[in-house]
Amino acid sequence: MSMSDTPVHDQVSGRADTLSMSVDSGKRKTIVMKFGGTSVGTIERIRIVAQRVKAEHAQGRRVAVVVSAMAGVTNQMVGYCAELDPLADPKEYDAVVASGEQVTSGLVAIALQALGVPARSFQGWQIPLVTDDAHGKASIDGVDGTELLKCLDNGIVPVIAGFQGVGPDNRIATLGRGGSDTSAVAIAAAIHADQCDIYTDVDGIYTTDPRIVKRARKLDRITYEEMLELASVGAKVLQTRSVGLAMREGVRVRVLSSFSETDDDSGSIVVDEDEIVEKELVAGIASSHDEAKLSVRGIPDRPGIAAAIFGPLAAANINVDMIVQNTGVDRMTNMTFTVGKSDEAAARAVLEKAHGIIQYGELETSHNVVKISVVGVGMRSNAGLAATMFGTLAERGINVQVISTSEIKISVLIDSEYKELAMRALHTAYGLDKKEEPST
Amino acid sequence: MSMSDTPVHDQVSGRADTLSMSVDSGKRKTIVMKFGGTSVGTIERIRIVAQRVKAEHAQGRRVAVVVSAMAGVTNQMVGYCAELDPLADPKEYDAVVASGEQVTSGLVAIALQALGVPARSFQGWQIPLVTDDAHGKASIDGVDGTELLKCLDNGIVPVIAGFQGVGPDNRIATLGRGGSDTSAVAIAAAIHADQCDIYTDVDGIYTTDPRIVKRARKLDRITYEEMLELASVGAKVLQTRSVGLAMREGVRVRVLSSFSETDDDSGSIVVDEDEIVEKELVAGIASSHDEAKLSVRGIPDRPGIAAAIFGPLAAANINVDMIVQNTGVDRMTNMTFTVGKSDEAAARAVLEKAHGIIQYGELETSHNVVKISVVGVGMRSNAGLAATMFGTLAERGINVQVISTSEIKISVLIDSEYKELAMRALHTAYGLDKKEEPST
């Protein structure tokens, strides 16, 4: 029953430490530039990416590049595998799907060379970037920075195929969808990069989704903890695992647009709390539709009820997120909680099987819910922030069904039809609205 | 000035010998099945390939599969590289282009598993199949059969990405266009296969091109030497290098169709001369348009003329194929010879530069020529076979411009407009016509 889906395996070996210490890279900034699928979606866009890299290289920076597959290619490969066998062997799936990043790495290296920038491609097995054997959704066990640092020391730009590594079985392993962000952070840690720039199709991290709240504001800085919570509760800009890894390894991650002009101050940067001078109480508001609400009603109230319900769910590897228990006057209790939508059917089956033990009256499921989360390091010291949330929602007549909190987050489950209203109201209430526009 | 373009580097290590000796594979036949790009061009065709492999596997055979990229994919990748840089770094070109075979190997493994056949893919670096560092057209330096034999011993079908290996620099290297045939033969040698079956879009090796000579006959058997000569003078069915490697390693190569029903006697087999009981004097007739004719006229006749002409050409790495020298009555001599069309401009430049030394009158070039070659082991013992060629061509009024011979081959250069006439006449004269139809 974990509160977040962040795996804890990803780690980076210190094998490269000795080498990096011995070279004089003290004055030159080392950066990782990561480009997603849309940024390298065509040959023309690959040329633009190469120009961006050249511009950094020309400033005397040591640059390593991490790339995704050209947009659409991964889906095509996944489609091929599924057409042959919807339950295709993950090891073969990985060999097929990882080819997309292999192609991009070679093409970007060619594009850089054509601009006069020395470059070479690296596949996961060539680095090596070693993963565990969970093919299709592997975690990084270690990255050997030696070969990459040799390139950087010689003025060569390594262009690394993201999303892939090599497992203990000497076979290609992929990190799961969006894994290129995690690759980039792991590479940045292994080469002791000063910064990991994630080029994407938005120009930074916002206080909330600008498509829902027009007054959403781009954040210049956000802490790892806040970004991690926001990513885990619905913000899509960075993969949760990549943020967790960046936090553990102390990698400064910057998110910026690959489709507009940028400079050293562009985008949003994810850093340690110590680096942020003027801390805001609340960093952002996220929403998630990935929850299903289950209510187990009419349970005879007795000790051990929670264990009787959540024990079997944990045994079935089902993550339970938010929980609320209401005890009625008639000595009957109701337990309401959320699970991931993809786990709903399995959760129902587990509970129906356990009916004899729990002896509940009825089991209800609802999809008609949305989880709204407010995240900010200010919550640690300011108890009034929770009250602001409940007060704001109550004023709008929005009923809170379930509540969960962590050190720097409050999440509420509400009826999904109130989603936009709740987000806009909370955005204003927490003082997150853009200054330029009136916050009425 | 070699007579053929067969490289001599490809070799197969015996590293797997000890292992293969220790297992009891005495009674079970081991075969390699190689499928070209059109045979795996769609998901549906990949399913058909898997069914063919399953049929062999079900007979209790130990089967290894070698695959090309899906038809069209390699050209797409080559196009991407060329669009970025027509002179793309061969190492990056290799990383990009080799992805095609990687995808097919994984997909064929999935298709086999879906049919209940245990299978796993192998990339060149996983075997490893080690090449030299001539990226883009690498030769095989050695194949370690250990991992492949482990699979076979466990009833698993290894599905190997053809066309690719790993260079001494730990980078992906490709073997040049058509290199998957060579991969298949090298794999067959490494796992001591009884036979290497090359599935393609024709149903065997013919006495000549059936599109030109309707009475062309499929050969049940042909010797390595004959196939090697035929491949080097224009027969396209097998890559020259693959035949040379098969000959040196003693791999029986069978060519058969992947688009029709086949059995153990289908197609044509390339074997050692000793295995052919009823030898035919002539195996086949091939034609090639890849030659350019150069004539250096009006050279003062003196010793050392040949060295003065061919020395600089050799120094410029230009292969000269056929040579004829005519000395006139006026103490002037003419030298006529052929080079590959792609070398023509370079050859002209070399000769123009050497004009002061050679002191020739004029330099003429012609593309309007075709090389017709008759190949057969019978030539070793039967001098009359050459006479048949010249007599047949003379009867038709076809002028022979240049002649070259090897132990088992006679090639003549003629005006290209006589190509079909010459081929049909020679086919009949050497008794190669199909029996069923009248040979008038």
Explain what the structure shows.
The structure is a homodimer of 440-residue chains. Chain A is α/β, with parallel strands linked by helices and 440 residues long. An eight-stranded mixed β-sheet of chain A has the order 3-6-2-1-9-13-14-12, with helices on both faces. Chain A has a four-stranded antiparallel β-sheet with strand order 15-20-22-21, with helices on both faces. Chain A has 14 helices and 22 strands. In chain A, helix 13 packs across helix 14. Residues 1-8 and 14-25 of chain A have low confidence and may be disordered. The first copy, chain A, folds into two domains: 17-276, Acetylglutamate kinase-like (Carbamate kinase, 3-Layer(aba) Sandwich), CATH 3.40.1160; 279-435, 2-Layer Sandwich (VC0802-like). At the A-B interface, helix 2, helix 3, helix 4 and helix 5 of A face helix 2, helix 3, helix 4 and helix 5 of B.
In short:
The structure is a homodimer of 440-residue chains. By secondary structure, the first copy, chain A, is of the alpha/beta class.
Identify the notable features of this structure and list them briefly:
25% strand; 22 strands; 33% helix; alpha/beta; homodimer; disordered N terminus; Carbamate kinase; globular; VC0802-like; 440 residues; 14 helices; 2 domains
